[in-house]
Task: structure prediction
Amino acid sequence: MKPATPADNEALLALLPALLADIARLIGVPGALKLIDRHGGTRLYVPEQIPRGHALVTLLGHGEALLLAERYGGDRIDIPVAHGWRRAMRNAAIMHERRSGTPQPAVARRYGMTERGIRMIERQCEAGDDDVQYGLF
Result:
């Protein structure tokens, strides 16, 4: 497998609405996916101060929640549903982890998938079917 480059990541992020791309750059793709899964299609209030027991801390982790509060504290942000983008970003993140040497079982557990599902994504990417727009339109 060829390693992903920063240009690959930026090409994928460029397909997103500006707000969502900013969030993905800020807290990472896994965190952006969690936000979409939990709050997609709704407006999310981000408090300026986030205590340790806050729902965003539970969802994202303390560090990522603090980053979100630093950037968007006091704002209500519209979180898109983004089904196709979620799949494309998940697959790109899976490929990044696999290219970095993370074992298939660990990646499968992290993304709530089977090892077979991870292998299918790898085969699609190796075959050249990894167009980032797949499933977006």
Residues 120 and 126 are 10 Å apart (CA to CA). The chain has eight helices and two strands. Residues 131-137 have pLDDT under 50 and may be disordered.
